[in-house]
Specification:
Number of helices: 4
Helix content: 25-40%
Number of strands: 7
Largest sheet: 5 strands, parallel
Structural class: alpha/beta
Oligomer: single chain
Distance between the termini: 13 Å
Order of helices and strands: EHEEEEHEHEH
Radius of gyration: 14 Å
Strand content: 15-25%
C-alpha cells in the first residue's frame, strides 16, 4: 500500500450502497488515484470511466494495483488484459468472494503479487491502524 499510487477498479459500480462503489471511494479518500473500469459508465468519483483495461490510454498508466470486482468466472479474461498492460501492475487484488487459482498462477509467474478473496478496504484499514 505504501508504494502504490494508482488503483484500476474493474467492475466499479455507480450505486452508492454497493461495495464496488464504497471500497474505491474509501481508497480514493486515502489518497489513491482511482481509474474506474466499467463499460456501462462514463464518469464516477470525478474520474472518466474506461470500458476495459485494454482501453486505458497511456496517460492512465502505470497502474500499481488492479482491484477486481468481477465474478470469479470472468477473472481469466481480465488476466489476459492485465498481462497485456505495459508496464505490468505490481499487484492484482480480487475482492472478497473472488478467486481463480489458474489466473493467480499466471499472474504470479509474470511477477505480479496476487491477493484473492480479501477486501482491499478492510486490509488497508487494518494495516493503517497497526502502522499509524
Amino acid at each position: 500500500f505504501r508504494e502504490a499510487q494508482t488503483i484500476a477498479v474493474v467492475g466499479i459500480k455507480a450505486g452508492e450502497q454497493e461495495d464496488a462503489y464504497q471500497v474505491p471511494l474509501y481508497m480514493q479518500s486515502q489518497g489513491y488515484r482511482i481509474i474506474p473500469i466499467n463499460p456501462k459508465l462514463e464518469e464516477i468519483l470525478g474520474q472518466p470511466v474506461y470500458p476495459s483495461l485494454g482501453k486505458l490510454p497511456d496517460s492512465a498508466l502505470p497502474v500499481d494495483i488492479v482491484n477486481l470486482f468481477r465474478a470469479s468466472e470472468h477473472i481469466p479474461g481480465h488476466t489476459d488484459e492485465i498481462l497485456a498492460l505495459e508496464p505490468l501492475p505490481r499487484a492484482v487484488w480480487m475482492q472478497l468472494g473472488i478467486a481463480d487459482g489458474a489466473s493467480a498462477s499466471r499472474l504470479r509467474a509474470a511477477g505480479i503479487q496476487v491477493i484473492q478473496d480479501r477486501c482491499i478496504m478492510v486490509d488497508h484499514r487494518r494495516l493503517a491502524a497497526a502502522n499509524p
